[in-house]
Amino acid sequence: MFDPCIxxxxxxxxxxxxxGFFLGFAGYSARMLTFHNPxxxxxxxxxxxxxxxRVPCFEMPARVDYVEETLRARGHALTAxxxxxxxxxxxxxxxxxxxxxxxxxxxxxxxxxxxxxxxPFPSVWPVRTLRSDVEPDNFVARLGLYSMDNGTPMAAGTxxxxxxxxxxxxxxxxxxxxxxxxxxxxxxxPGHHAGADFMGGYCFLNNAAVAAQWLRNHGAQRVALLxxxxxxxxxxxxxxxxxxxxLFASIHGDPRTEYxxxxxxxxxxxxxxxxxxxxxxxxxxxxxxxxxxxxLEQACARIASYRADALVxxxxxxxxxGDPISRFALTSxxxxxxxxxxxxxxxxxxxxLEGGYAAAELGTNAVNVLEGFGA
Length: 375
Ligand code: Q9C
Ligand code: ZN
Description:
With about 375 residues, this protein is an alpha/beta fold. The protein has twelve helices and ten strands. It has helices at about 5, 15-20, 60-75, 85-90, 95-110, 140-145, 160-175, 205-215, 235-240, 290-305, 330-345, 360-375; strands at about 35, 45-50, 55, 80, 180-185, 225, 245-255, 280-285, 310-315, 350-355. It is globular, with a radius of gyration of 19 Å. It starts with a helix and ends with a helix. The site of zinc ion has 7 residues, from loops. N-{4-[(3-aminopropyl)amino]butyl}acetamide binds near residues 201, 202, 203 and 259.
């Protein structure tokens, strides 16, 4: 279908809006438009805790290095972010959380310059009956206030890396809002566990929420956000839980046994105006690929009935059979099939990299999705 707004990728968006958003595709490019994060290596967490032991952090810079390497090898170019996500970040995150995160490393060093060689972990949290409205003066207490777990270590370059990743997500959404059929935000740290005012699960800024909000700000009336990471996207769900303009659908390990444990059950269907616009499809650890694809059909049916103008995919690859911390059974070929099924939704799509800890296979699995989609 021809529409003038999509033949000029840099035309002002008002043209698209006047003609109705998303009347057609910009054309099927053979390669996926990919935004990378030039600062991701500044976020290099050293350790996390696993059953009482300090172990190397699973969420490591090499993950994205593998994805970038595979993208290049298979002919996909990498583009630097060209959009400032700050205004959209302020729409999906709380101001005091952003202020904390932006200066957290300096606050850590202010305690003791020797902290430059150490990464901070929270050790106390304002759970039920405790107050989270008052910011303590103690840095580690503030770190707990703004964290959901002790599994999200911070490094010197964490803020810069997370911000550049959010910029990459906004850049990908901007191109799609301008008429591109699809774009991929290839970034780490991931984002879907980060809520409006907390970090967790290796996540600091919610890149997928930034992409969805960007699309809403630039002409899309309804955005569907599909999360296929093994872990429930608690942060994304909570950000959009009372909104009808962003449908959140997620396929994930049952939180009764799988991280993040305290959210992601099937009876969480949305609240207020958002009632009916949250779909959780938890599956038991050990679920087969066949059963996983049945859940994908359910999610796709809901997305189709929602009549979305655009799709954001929280693309975790940890449903892979070889993932070291997850227990689903998708093969590398299944990721191609996933991409093909998403293409059949017929929606302009922003893919945002989330988890996936079989680092050496991450490039193959991610690019399989993108090429299965028809990138
Ligand atoms: N030591 C994402 O996939 N901790 N986050 C696992 C292993 C939390 C995963 C425990 C896993 C979070 C984005
Ligand atoms: Zn995950």
